[in-house]
Amino acid sequence: MEKENRLIGASCKNAELIGFTAAPDLESARKISEILVKERLAACAQVGGQIESFYEWNGEFCRTAEIPITFKLLSSDEAALFERLKTLHPYECPEWVSLRAENISSAYAKWMRGK
């Protein structure tokens, strides 16, 4: 019998989130990702390839190479993850954006909650 694996809506009580940040280099991105997953604040972290970010900081236009990190986490862990991220991140003001996973496979949600 095949295991059930269907798309489900996020639960209101403890929604699954996708969180985003960027690090200045691959070493920082890997360190941040490893610690947050090992401390069980994120179920998964994915470190991407180099991107180029354009922004204004302290009145100056900036163009910076960065490494994006995508996290899969539960909403109940978000505040703790963000506090820990701030202690690990070399930036004065690290990016943190999270989105609720509107749909997720039931098997993946079960795995995330079992982390």
Detailed description of the structure:
The protein has 115 residues and is an alpha+beta fold. It is built from 3 helices and 7 strands; from the N terminus they run ββαβββαββα. The chain has helices spanning 26-38, 78-88, 106-113; strands at residues 7-9, 16-23, 44-47, 51-57, 60-74, 97-100, 103-105. Strands 2, 3, 4, 5 and 6 form a 5-stranded antiparallel beta sheet that branches. The longest helix has 13 residues, at 26-38.
How is the topology of this model organized?
Blueprint: E1 7-9, E2 16-23, H1 26-38, E3 44-47, E4 51-57, E5 60-74, H2 78-88, E6 97-100, E7 103-105, H3 106-113
Antiparallel strand pairs: 1-7, 2-5, 2-6, 3-5, 4-5
What kind of sheet is the major sheet? Answer: 5 strands, antiparallel
**Helix/strand class:** alpha+beta
The helix content is 25-40%
- Helix count from the secondary structure assignment: 3
Order of helices and strands: EEHEEEHEEH
Report the strand count: 7
Q: Averaging pLDDT over every residue, what do you get?
A: 90
Give structural attributes.
115 residues; alpha+beta; five-stranded antiparallel sheet; two-stranded antiparallel ribbon; 7 strands
Quick overview of this protein structure:
The chain has 115 residues and is of the alpha+beta class. The protein has helices at 26-38, 78-88, 106-113; strands at 7-9, 16-23, 44-47, 51-57, 60-74, 97-100, 103-105.
